[in-house]
Write a structure and sequence with these properties.
The protein is of the alpha/beta class. The protein contains seven helices and 15 strands.
């Protein structure tokens, strides 16, 4: 009997943007302006994110806001793009919680397949399409897929990843050693089928713990890795930028200049 063909990835039309933070490492640039409203080549960071997601076919975007939420919500209200429906969700404890708290705020929106994009990551249209196409695990597209890139060496601020040759994720975290690291997360994930429910329940469980608000949501992904349901999607050679430090502004602007 011939083996059954692997199921192909279904189109994901829903994305969640985690844009609650101030971006304190970008001070004084972000003293009165949230990171997501920094201008790059004539558009704000969040406008570029929405544009690239829309080009990839995303039709619904939920944005978690926090610092200067009124300004962010106003900026979003000025976007008149028929391709996407955008809704903002305020995270009232953004000052004391890490981004796991932002995931908890929109946990009820995590139904069906969806994407999560960190609020400080600029990604190209090609990356969106690559992630939406999906990469196969043993039974079809990975229920949870972490988008990863590779480079010669990784520093203490990188979200480091250890993965198997077949793409299965073994560990993810900033404290992995050089020997334990063979790629890095760019802050862009896809959740399909049972992966959405696995993640939503794990977020709920972690946030009930005493120190839940102190964690990144990728700590939850690390705890799910042993299930064998978490894989990776490599975008090696493709173009993206993370905006964390003032030194990143020039690099990110050079990238967005090519998108105009």
């Amino acid at each position: 009997m011939r083996p059954l063909p692997l199921l192909r990835a279904a189109m994901i039309e829903h994305a969640i943007l985690l844009s609650a933070g101030q971006g304190s490492r970008l001070l004084p640039l972000t003293a009165e302006r949230p990171k997501c409203l920094i201008d790059f080549s004539g558009r704000t960071l969040i406008e570029w994110q929405i544009e690239m997601l829309a080009r990839g076919g995303v039709k619904k975007i939920d944005i978690v806001t926090g610092f200067k939420t009124d300004e962010v919500e106003h900026a979003i209200s000025q976007i008149n793009d028929p391709r996407v429906e955008i809704t903002c969700h305020f995270n009232p404890f953004f000052k004391v919680a890490d981004n796991l708290g932002s995931c908890w705020i929109v946990r009820e929106e995590m139904k069906g397949d969806f994407l999560i994009l960190n609020g400080d990551t600029l990604i190209s249209e090609d990356i969106v399409k690559k992630v939406l196409a999906g990469e196969d695990g043993p039974d079809g597209p990975w229920p949870i897929a972490v988008t990863v890139d590779v480079k010669p060496a990784y520093d203490s601020d990188d979200m480091k990843v250890l993965r198997e040759p077949d793409g299965r994720l073994l560990h993810i975290g900033k404290t992995l050693t050089a020997e334990e690291t063979n790629s890095e997360s760019i802050g862009f994930l896809a959740f399909r089928g049972e992966g959405a429910e696995l993640f939503r329940e794990a977020v709920r469980t972690k946030m009930r713990e005493r120190d839940g608000v102190e964690h990144w949501y990728l700590k939850v992904i690390d705890t799910l890795a042993p299930t064998g349901k978490v894989g990776t999607c490599s975008i090696e050679g493709m173009h993206w930028a993370e905006v964390d430090f003032l030194t990143d502004i020039e690099t990110a602007t050079a990238l967005t200049d090519t998108w105009n």
